[in-house]
Amino acid sequence: AQSVAQPEDQVNVAEGNPLTVKCTYSVSGNPYLFWYVQYPNRGLQFLLKYITGDNLVKGSYGFEAEFNKSQTSFHLKKPSALVSDSALYFCAVKGDYGQNFVFGPGTRLSVLP
Amino acid sequence: DADVTQTPRNRITKTGKRIMLECSQTKGHDRMYWYRQDPGLGLQLIYYSFDVKDINKGEISDGYSVSRQAQAKFSLSLESAIPNQTALYFCATSASDSGRAGTQYFGPGTRLLVL
Questions:
Q1: pLDDT-derived band of residue B13, with 50, 70 and 90 as boundaries?
Q2: What SS3 class is residue A78?
Q3: Which chain B residues are Cβ-neighbours of A45 within 8 angstroms?
Q4: How many Å lie between the alpha carbon of B17 and the closest alpha carbon of chain A?
Q5: What does the buried/exposed string (b/e) look like for A26-47 if buried means 16 or more CB atoms within 10 Å of the residue's CB?
Q6: How far is CA A29 from the centre of its chain?
Q7: In this structure, what are the phi and psi dihedrals at residue B103, rounded to the nearest 5 degrees?
C-alpha cells in the first residue's frame, strides 16, 4: 500500500529564515513524489516533482526538495521564506505499482513578518 | 488554474437532494479525476477516468457517481446528498503521454454544504 505522512500540521517561520516542510512516504517500487501548494480559495498548484536523477529538485517560487531514499523522505525547503509563502502544502506519492497518487494530510505554513 | 474550471464554486443543498458538480478543461488532457478535501485528511480520490470510455472507482466512491460526457468534461453526482458529504471538491486533469508520473492540474474547487 502507498502512504504519505506529513508529521507537522503547522509550521511557523519568520520572514527571511529558511523553511522546511517534512514529508515521508511508503511505496512499492520506485517513488514518484510531488509537492503542491494551496492558497486560500484556490485549487492546488504544482510546485515540483521527483521522478529520477538528481536528489535535489528545484521548483517554482524558489522552492526545492531533497529526495532521500534511505530515509524515504522528500522534504520541501526554501532558503529564505516570504510572507506570501503562507499556504497549505501537500506532498503526494505514487509507486511503480500504484495506479494513482496518494496525498498527505497537508501542512499549513505561516511565515511571520 | 483557468484551464480547469468547476461549476458551481459554492453550493448549499439539503439532505436527500441530488446534485451535480461539473468540471471542464481546455488542457487537452485525457485523464480526469475527482477528489474531496476534508480538513486534516488531505485529498481523497473519489473517481477517475483515463479516457471517455474508462471510469474507475477511487478510495471513497460510495454515494457518488460520475459521467465522462466528452474528453473535456467530467461530472460528479451525489444521488442523495448527506451531511458528511460536506467538503471541498476538486477536479484534476493529467496527460497520459506524460507517463507514470504526470503532473495533475487542479480546478479551483467547489465548496459544498449539505444541511
A1: very high
A2: strand
A3: 1, 106
A4: 25
A5: ebeeebbbbbbbbeeeebbbbb
A6: 20
A7: -65, 135
A residues 92..111 contacting B (CB < 8 A): 94, 96, 99-101, 103-106
DSSP A1-57: --EEE---SEEEEETTS-EEE--EEE-SSSEEEEEEEE-TTS-EEEEEEE-SS-SEE
Nearest-CA neighbor of B34 among B26, B44, B24?
B44
Cα distance between residue B81 and residue B6, in whole Å:
19
- Hey, what's the cell of B108? 479551483
Cis peptide before A105 (omega within 30 of 0): no
What chain A residue is nearest to B46 in terms of C-alpha separation?
A100
Closest by Cβ to A105, choosing from B41, B101, B107: B41
Question: Does B107 sit within 8 Å of A100, measured CB to CB?
Answer: no
Q: How far apart are CA A56 and CA A67, in angstroms?
A: 6
pLDDT tens track for A50-101: 998 899 999 999 999 999 999 999 999 999 999 999 999 999 998 877 678 8
- pLDDT of B1 strictly over 60: no
How far is A32 from A99, CA to CA, in rounded Å?
12
Of A76, A68, A69, residue with least CA distance to A106 = A76
Q: Which among A94, A103, A105 is the nearest to B101, CB-wise?
A: A94
Decide the pairing of beta strands B10-13 and B110-114.
Answer: parallel
